[in-house]
Amino acid sequence: MRKPVKATALGVRGIVAAVESGRLTASAVAEAYLEAIAAREGEVRAFAYLDPALVRAQARKLDRAGRRKKSPLRGVPFAVKDIIKTKDQPTECNSPIYRGYRPKADADCVAAVRAAGALIIGKTVTTEFAGRHPGPTRNPWDLARTPGGSSSGSAAAVAAGFAPLAFGTQTGGSVIRPASYCGIVGYKSTLGLLSVGGIKPLALGFDALGVMAATPDDILVAHAVLAGVADSPPKPSRKPRFGLLKTPAWELAEAASRSAVNRTAARLRAIGATVETIKLPAEFDDILPVYEIISSHIIADSYRWEWQHHRDKLSPSFREAIEKGLAWPHETLAAAWATAHTCLDLMNGILGGCDAVVTPAALGEAGIGIADTGSAACNAMWSLLGMPAVTLPLARGPAGMPVGVQLVAARRDDRRLLGLADWVYRKLGPA
Questions:
Q1: How many CA atoms lie within 13 A of 295 on its CB side?
Q2: Catalytic one of 174, 257, 302, 383
Q3: What is the number of alpha carbons within 13 Å of residue 39 lying toward its C-beta?
Q4: How far apart are CA 84 and CA 69, in angstroms?
Q5: SS3 of residue 162 by DSSP
Q6: pTM of the entire structure?
Q7: pLDDT band at 233, cuts 50/70/90?
Q8: Is 152 a catalytic residue?
Q9: Which residues, at least 6 apart from 188, have a Cβ–Cβ distance to it below 8 Å?
């Protein structure tokens, strides 16, 4: 007798294969994940909006559609960060300004995965407008700790087994850091590579779409849909080349994070990869303050309407960010942009000599409490320069919490980076 299929243990390709073959229905997959949510959502609080009746209705519609054509995400539950528009669910951005707001259309990324057969399982908690003011979500590994931000609910949902895939966005460290804290895989796309149409920006033109999952292979499936490319995982070269890169955040990082990177480099060498230490030029010394100047200015520009009409409904931390962004003189902004362009040129040269660099994903383990979602110091440089990044759960810290290791590649090298991350994960992970 064939053993019953446990949908929540299948992974993305497994779910699709089971539904396409008729071993499972989309409704059975939905019920399995709704059961998982019911068991822990009360303590994790990953969702800003969850309607089980709507989830079941979506699943029944997928089942009625039959298997007339292959769908790359058929029946796969996909959670959506609550700054991303959904036509059938509210998009409130964790702000009273948008309480009850119902978009008329899906964001581009949501429309793409729906067309590929995905089931939108719910809207996940974000910090206010993807900034720093937190929501109620807790880390599934330890409920006393932060899940990170701003894609708090998305990271927690995947880590808790509420969905195999979840959308996040990143302006500073909002995908990579929470993925690291929650012990999952997080991918931030090259700036501008994947559409952000229909997403409420934190910093217009500065935000990148991201995807979170249990494995890089799960993300490869979603990436193929979002990028409109064939789902053929690229194989790394026989002897991948890595750079061990200590950014200006290295000295800020805890010993656990530095150790995770150094140990990963040693393990990569042991399996035949080349790993060379890279020293950044002096032009990168001020890259973190440069990021703060540029990002805060764009945030202030992006929220002029809310600032003018609903200032009293913004959190103190968001008002402070806007005030900071409005205060920069033109000369300071011009100098910051000049440094950013110089560093981009230099980094393009560095990444031209290797397949990816290995660097910390976060300063360390997730912190105690949920009032502070953590520092973006390990991610800000890559967000500023628009590079694609992946974090892998390859280590644990002294408290037993996950510590991610970040891989970064050249702009628009996303699919090759994901293929390389998949190779590393199969060889070394998870922790």
A1: 27
A2: 174
A3: 11
A4: 28
A5: coil
A6: 0.97
A7: confident
A8: no
A9: 168, 170, 175, 176, 208, 210, 379, 382, 383, 388, 389, 390
For 253-289, the pLDDT digits (tens) are: 999 999 999 999 999 999 999 999 999 999 999 999 9
Tokens of 203: 């910093």
How far apart are alpha carbons 259 and 375 in whole angstroms? 18
Does 27 qualify as catalytic in the annotation?
A: no
pLDDT per residue as tens digits for the range 144-173: 999 999 999 999 999 999 999 999 999 999
Residues composing the chain: 431
Q: Say if CB 250 and CB 381 are below 8 A apart.
A: no
pLDDT value at 70 more than 90: no
81 is catalytic: yes
Task: Compute the distance between CA of residue 101 and CA of residue 99 in angstroms, rounded to an integer.
Answer: 6
Of 235 and 54, the one with more pLDDT: 54
Measure the N-to-C terminal CA separation of the chain; round to a whole number of Å: 34
Strand order of the β-sheet with 389-396 is 47-49, 119-124, 77-81, 165-170, 208-213, 185-188, 389-396, 402-408, 356-360, 241-245, 274-278
- At 359 the three-state DSSP class reads strand
CA distance 408 to 357: 5
* Helix H or strand E encompassing 307: helix 304-309
Residue 132: name the closest of 217, 202, 52, 37 by CA. 202
Per annotation, catalytic residue among 27, 81, 154, 315: 81
| Cβ-defined contacts of 303-310 (< 8 Å, 24+) | 303/129, 306/97, 310/97
Give kind and range of the element (H or E) at residue 419.
helix 414-428
Catalytic site residue from 27, 71, 95, 150: 150
Q: What tens digit of pLDDT does each residue of 293-304 get?
A: 999 999 999 999
Domains (range + CATH), the chain: 1-431 (3.90.1300.10)
Q: What is the mean pLDDT of residues 57-81?
A: 92
Tokens of 186: 């997080």
